[in-house]
């Protein structure tokens, strides 16, 4: 029983250290994957496209750095900016979404990368506190 608790304690400790040491690589990797998801975005029920839509709707953001990131995608040339970027679904026409100057008034202008990373960093203290609590309980 003591060995099992020691093993769990070590796993929690190693996970915390690895997460702290490699946090910059995690950010870089997330940004490149978000860029890939935007590039390959489509209307079909693709997991990556659904994830992008969910992030944009939940965090009220659009694109990686800002809404103009969509201009470099194939999806933009066909349909414009996705509807998941719209501030109001009722006031967002396809013509507005195809024109960046009109879209600026109708969509969220902030990028998702900064919002996701800042949300993750703000929740890290909670995760660290819970991990510390579990480790103290085990000791």
UniProtKB/TrEMBL annotation:
<keyword id="KW-0732">Signal</keyword>
<keyword id="KW-0325">Glycoprotein</keyword>
<comment type="function">
    <text>May be involved in cell proliferation and cell motility.</text>
</comment>
<dbReference type="InterPro" id="IPR008952">
    <property type="entry name" value="Tetraspanin_EC2_sf"/>
</dbReference>
<dbReference type="Pfam" id="PF00335">
    <property type="entry name" value="Tetraspanin"/>
</dbReference>
<dbReference type="InterPro" id="IPR018499">
    <property type="entry name" value="Tetraspanin/Peripherin"/>
</dbReference>
<protein>
    <recommendedName>
        <fullName>Tetraspanin-7</fullName>
    </recommendedName>
</protein>
<keyword id="KW-0472">Membrane</keyword>
<keyword id="KW-1133">Transmembrane helix</keyword>
<dbReference type="GO" id="GO:0005886">
    <property type="term" value="C:plasma membrane"/>
</dbReference>
<dbReference type="InterPro" id="IPR048232">
    <property type="entry name" value="TSN6/7_LEL"/>
</dbReference>
<feature type="signal peptide">
    <location>
        <begin position="1"/>
        <end position="19"/>
    </location>
</feature>
<keyword id="KW-0812">Transmembrane</keyword>
């Amino acid at each position: 029983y003591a060995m099992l608790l020691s093993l769990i304690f070590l796993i929690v400790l190693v996970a915390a250290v690895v997460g702290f040491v490699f946090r910059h690589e995690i950010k870089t990797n997330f940004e490149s994957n978000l860029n890939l998801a935007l590039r390959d975005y489509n209307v079909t029920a693709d997991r990556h496209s659904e994830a992008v839509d969910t992030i944009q709707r939940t965090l009220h953001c659009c694109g990686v750095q800002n809404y103009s990131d969509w201009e470099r995608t194939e999806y933009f040339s066909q349909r414009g900016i996705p509807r998941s970027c719209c501030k109001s679904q009722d006031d967002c026409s396809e013509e507005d979404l195809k024109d960046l100057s009109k879209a600026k008034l109708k969509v969220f202008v902030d990028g998702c990368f900064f919002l996701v990373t800042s949300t993750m960093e703000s929740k890290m203290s909670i995760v660290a506190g819970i991990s510390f609590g579990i480790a103290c309980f085990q000791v």
